[in-house]
Specification:
- The chain has one domain: TIM Barrel (Alpha-Beta Barrel), CATH 3.20.20.
- 30% of the residues lie in helices and 20% in strands.
- The chain contains eight helices and eleven strands.
- The chain has a seven-stranded mixed β-sheet, sandwiched between helices. A two-stranded antiparallel ribbon has the order 5-6.
- The longest helix has 13 residues.
- Bound molecules: zinc ion (2 copies).
């Protein structure tokens, strides 16, 4: 079957994510847009994944539990895991690698995590916009050690990308690379190139969703489709 997928989205937990981006509202929006495989990848934290998982299940959407890590080189990498539990475990690990710099909500935005009914459960005190104390290559090892997907984010952006921070894309076993402008990236890179909305507002969701062919709704099937290039980006 061919499904609409959008892997990279931020909730109200990300300092730059709008407060309207509760997991509940995001999942409803995805349903409206016909997205059946939805990813959540907040900056350096996974605390909104439990609510996201519940909301997806309630709406019949397959959840991709992820995180967007800022490496020591300030490269953004989206990582996804087969289970909520593994993703949460990884999220705690990444949060522990962040410097003890408190967030300034007035300056940088709120970092709230909520339940599936939009009740605020708490606020992350450390600034999630900082770099975690882990290198790009170390991160790849950790993610693959947990059988997760390692996807360098927005590789063609002039900031927080492999191209802006490292100057090149190291030859490593990526599961895919994410680009904003896919055709030019396909010309430049040999890897499987995908795109995603990287939405921070409800209006931004679905603007760069794409199609993937999977045999069943499972993380393994999605991984296999990525590996074999069994997907289509309409740009
Ligand atoms: Zn990013
Ligand atoms: Zn992002």
């Amino acid at each position: 079957m061919i499904c609409t997928i959008d892997l990279h989205n931020h909730s109200c937990l990300s300092p730059c994510g709008s407060l309207e981006m509760s997991p509940s509202a995001m999942v409803k929006r995805a349903k409206h847009l016909g997205i059946s495989l939805l990813g959540l990848s907040d900056h350096n934290s996974t605390r909104n994944l439990p609510a996201f998982d519940v909301c997806c299940t309630n709406q019949g959407i397959f959840p991709l539990c992820g995180i967007e890590v800022t490496t020591r080189e300030e490269v953004h990498v989206t990582c996804y895991f087969e289970t909520l539990k593994t993703a949460q475990h990884f999220g705690r690990f990444i949060e522990s690698l962040l410097p003890d710099i408190p967030n300034s909500p007035d300056l940088l935005g709120d970092q709230v995590y909520v339940d599936s009914r939009e009740h605020i459960l708490g606020e992350v005190e450390k600034s999630l916009g900082q770099a975690a104390d882990i290198t790009f290559e170390q991160l790849l090892e950790e993610v693959h050690g947990l059988n997760g997907l390692f996807i360098p984010a927005h590789i063609d952006r002039p900031y927080f990308s492999v191209s802006s921070q490292l100057g090149f894309l190291p030859d490593l076993p990526y599961d895919a690379v994410e680009s904003i402008r896919v055709p030019s990236a396909i010309d430049t890179y040999q890897n499987n190139v995908i795109t995603n909305s990287d939405a921070h507002y409800l209006d931004g969701m679905g603007r760069r969703s794409w199609q993937i062919e999977i045999s069943e709704y499972s993380f393994t099937a999605i991984s296999a489709a990525l590996e074999s290039g069994n997907f289509r980006i309409s740009q």
